[in-house]
C-alpha cells in the first residue's frame, strides 16, 4: 500500500483497431476512494474491472494496482458481481458461497476447520446474514444473496473492492442496504471502492468521484462536475439532458435503455461515436 | 448356488470390486454433473463409448481399451466444439449422432460373438478379467484422486464462475479437465451397467443426494454411498437370478433410492434447516454492524 495509489491507469487502451473499447484512459484512484463508474451498455465498464483484476491486458498504456502490475487472483482485490439466479435446489448454502471467498481457489476439499468456520461466521455476522446463511443460495432473495456476496468478498480482507452492477435487479430498499454495507466497509477499513453502475442514485450519497465512459471517451470528476448537461453532451457528442429532482439525478441520454423506455425525452439512436477521442 | 458360495468365487469378487470402484468414481462426479447441467454430456459420452468399444472389438478384439480411447477422443471433441453450456448440448447431439452411426457401421464389419456387442450396451461385469480389473482400478483411483484435488476450485467454478475467474481460478481449464474425468468415469460405468444405463450410476445417486441435503460435501458423500449400494447391491441381487442382467438390478435399486429420497427429501431438509425458507424476502431491514 504505502504511498502508491490503489489504482493508477495511464494512457491505457483496451481492444484493437476497430474494436477499440476505450483508449487514452488516465485514472488515479487514491486508497479509500469511492469511485462510481457510469456509462451506457458496451462502454467498457466491466472491461475496466477486468483490466484491474488482471483478466484482460490493456493493448496500450500502463496499469498499476498498489504500484504493481495487475495479477490474476490477487488477494488485495475483492469482487462483487451482479446478482444472478441460482438453481433453487443447488446444494450450496449461503455460507458455502461465502466460504469460496476464503479458499475457493485452493485445491482440495473444504473441510470445516474451526478457524475457517470462525472467520466465515464472523463476516456473515458483519453483513447481517446470520439468519439465512444456512439456507441454499437458490432459495434466497436477491438482497440476501448480495449480502452474502459482500461477505464473500470481505473474507479475503481486500484493499480494493470491485463491484460490477451489484444492485441490478434489487429493489430500492435492498439497494440502500447493499450500498450502505459497502460504504461501511470502506469507512472502517479504508477500502477503495470501484462501483460499476448504470444508476448513480443509490450510491450518490457515498461517491467521491465519477468515471463516465461513453463510446471510448471518458470524463472523471466529482458528481457535481460530471453530471451536467454540458459535460455529458460533450462526452456523448450529442444533446444530453441531466434532470435533478428530489435529490435524484437522471441522465437522459440518446442510447440509454434503462430510463423507463417510455420514449419521452429519448433522442433517436446515436450514430456510432466519432473516431477521435478526447480525455476528460 | 447360494450367495455365500458365489462370494467365494474369484469372478464374483472381481465383479463386486469393479462395481465398487466404478460406484465411487460415479458418486464423486455425479453432483458436479448436476450442478454443471451436464446430464446430456454423460449420456453422449456413454453412447460414444459404444462406438469406441465397437472399434476396439473390430481392431484389437478389446472393447474396454476401445471404449477408453473413444472417451479421450470424445472428451476432446466436446471440449473443442463448445464448453459453453448452450453450445455444448448441440455439439454433443451432433457428435453423438455421428458417433453412433459409425459404431453401427463398425459392428456390421464385426463377425465375432454377437453377445460382445450387446454386452457393450447392457454391461457385462462378470466378464471382467484380472487385467481389465486392474485397468478399471487404476482409472477409478485416478478419478478419485483428481476429484479430491480439484473438488473445491471445481465447485467454485461450477457454482460461481464470475467470481471464480476473478479469484484466479482457471475456470475454462477446469471445465475441460472435468470433461475428460467424466469421459473416463462414464466409460468405466459402462462396463458395469452398459452404455445405455450409465445414467443410473452417474446421475441417479447424485440426484437422490440432492434431494436430501443442502451441503455440497454431504451431497457428495451421500452420492458415493448411494452409488455403492446400487452397484454392489445390484450385483448381489443378480446372483439370485440367472436370466436377468445385473444392470437391471442396479438401475432398479438406484431408482428406488431416488424415489425414496424424492418423497422424504422435503421433510429431511426442513428438519435439518429448522425452518423451511420459502422465498422469504427478509433483508429489507437496516444495516446491522
Question: What would a concise description of this structure say?
Answer:
The complex is a heterodimer of chains A (280) and B (289). By secondary structure, chain A is an alpha/beta fold.
What does this entry look like structurally?
The complex is a heterodimer of chains A (280) and B (289). Helix content of chain A is 27%, strand content 22%. With 280 residues, chain A is of the alpha/beta class. Chain A folds into two domains: 1-76 and 158-280, Rossmann fold, CATH 3.40.50; 88-151, no CATH class. In chain A, a hairpin with a 7-residue loop joins strand 1 and strand 2. In chain A, helix 3 crosses helix 4 and helix 4 (142-155) packs parallel to helix 5 (172-189). The model of chain A is unreliable at 258-280 (pLDDT under 50). Chain B starts with a helix and ends in a 16-residue tail after the last helix. In chain B, helix 2 (10-35) packs antiparallel against helix 9 (171-193) and helix 7 (130-159) packs antiparallel against helix 9 (171-193). The relative contact order of chain B is 0.16. The model of chain B is unreliable at 275-289 (pLDDT under 50). By secondary structure, chain B is mainly alpha-helical. Chain B has one domain: ABC transporter involved in vitamin B12 uptake, BtuC, CATH 1.10.3470. Chains A and B meet through helix 2, helix 4 and helix 5 of A and helix 7, helix 8, helix 11 and helix 12 of B.
Amino acid at each position: 500500500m504505502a504511498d502508491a495509489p490503489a489504482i493508477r491507469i495511464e494512457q491505457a487502451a483496451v481492444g484493437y483497431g476497430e474494436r477499440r473499447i476505450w483508449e487514452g484512459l488516465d485514472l488515479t484512484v487514491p486508497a479509500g476512494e469511492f469511485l462510481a463508474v457510469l456509462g451506457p451498455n458496451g462502454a467498457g465498464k466491466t472491461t475496466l474491472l477486468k483490466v484491474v483484476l488482471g483478466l484482460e491486458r490493456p493493448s496500450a498504456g500502463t496499469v498499476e494496482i498498489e504500484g504493481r502490475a495487475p495479477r490474476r487472483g490477487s488477494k488485495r482485490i475483492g469482487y462483487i458481481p451482479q446478482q444472478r439466479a441460482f438453481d433453487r435446489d443447488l446444494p450450496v448454502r449461503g455460507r458455502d458461497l461465502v466460504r469460496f471467498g476464503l479458499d475457493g481457489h485452493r485445491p482440495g476439499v473444504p473441510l470445516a476447520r474451526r478457524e475457517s468456520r470462525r472467520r466465515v461466521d464472523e463476516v456473515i455476522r458483519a453483513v447481517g446474514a446470520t439468519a439465512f446463511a444456512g439456507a441454499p443460495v437458490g432459495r434466497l432473495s436477491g438482497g440476501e444473496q448480495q449480502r452474502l456476496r459482500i461477505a464473500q468478498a470481505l473474507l479475503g480482507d481486500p484493499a480494493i473492492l470491485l463491484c460490477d452492477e451489484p444492485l441490478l435487479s434489487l429493489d430500492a430498499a435492498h439497494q440502500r442496504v447493499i450500498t450502505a454495507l459497502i460504504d461501511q466497509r470502506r469507512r472502517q477499513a479504508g477500502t477503495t471502492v470501484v462501483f460499476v453502475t448504470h444508476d448513480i442514485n443509490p450510491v450518490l450519497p457515498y461517491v467521491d468521484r465519477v468515471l463516465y465512459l461513453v463510446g471510448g471517451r471518458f470524463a472523471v470528476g466529482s458528481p457535481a462536475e460530471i453530471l451536467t448537461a454540458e459535460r455529458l453532451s460533450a462526452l456523448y457528442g450529442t444533446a444530453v439532458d441531466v434532470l435533478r429532482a428530489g435529490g435524484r439525478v437522471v441522465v437522459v441520454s440518446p442510447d440509454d435503455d434503462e430510463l423507463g423506455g417510455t420514449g419521452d425525452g429519448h433522442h433517436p439512436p446515436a450514430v456510432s461515436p466519432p473516431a477521435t477521442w478526447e480525455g476528460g | 448356488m447360494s450367495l455365500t458360495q458365489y462370494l467365494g468365487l474369484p469372478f464374483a469378487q472381481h465383479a463386486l470390486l469393479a462395481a465398487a470402484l466404478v460406484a465411487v468414481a460415479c458418486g464423486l462426479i455425479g453432483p458436479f454433473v448436476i450442478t454443471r447441467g451436464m446430464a446430456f454430456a454423460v449420456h453422449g459420452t456413454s453412447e460414444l463409448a459404444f462406438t469406441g468399444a465397437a472399434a476396439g472389438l473390430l481392431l484389437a478384439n478389446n472393447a474396454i481399451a476401445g471404449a477408453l480411447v473413444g472417451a479421450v477422443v470424445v472428451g476432446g471433441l466436446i471440449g473443442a466444439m463448445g464448453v459453453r453450456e448452450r453450445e455444448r448440448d448441440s455439439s454433443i447431439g451432433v457428435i453423438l449422432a455421428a458417433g453412433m452411426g459409425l459404431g453401427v457401421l463398425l459392428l456390421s464389419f464385426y463377425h465375432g460373438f454377437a453377445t460382445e456387442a450387446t454386452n457393450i450396451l447392457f454391461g457385462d461385469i462378470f466378464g471382467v478379467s484380472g487385467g481389465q480389473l486392474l485397468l478399471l482400478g487404476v482409472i477409478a483411483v485416478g478419478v478419485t484422486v483428481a476429484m479430491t484435488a480439484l473438488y473445491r476450485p471445481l465447485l467454485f467454478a461450477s457454482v460461481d464462475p464470475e467470481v471464480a475467474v476473478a479469484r484466479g481460478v482457471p475456470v475454462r481449464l477446469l471445465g475441460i479437465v472435468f470433461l475428460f474425468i467424466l469421459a473416463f468415469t462414464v466409460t468405466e460405468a459402462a462396463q458395469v451397467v452398459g452404455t445405455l444405463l450409465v445414467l443410473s450410476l452417474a446421475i441417479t445417486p447424485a440426484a437422490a443426494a440432492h434431494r436430501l441435503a443442502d451441503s455440497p460435501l454431504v451431497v457428495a458423500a451421500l452420492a458415493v454411498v448411494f452409488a455403492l449400494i446400487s452397484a454392489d447391491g445390484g450385483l448381489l441381487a443378480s446372483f439370485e437370478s440367472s436370466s436377468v442382467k445385473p444392470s437391471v438390478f442396479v438401475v432398479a435399486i438406484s431408482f428406488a433410492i431416488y424415489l425414496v429420497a424424492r418423497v422424504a427429501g422435503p421433510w429431511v431438509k426442513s428438519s435439518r434447516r429448522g425452518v423451511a425458507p420459502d422465498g422469504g424476502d427478509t433483508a429489507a431491514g437496516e444495516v446491522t454492524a
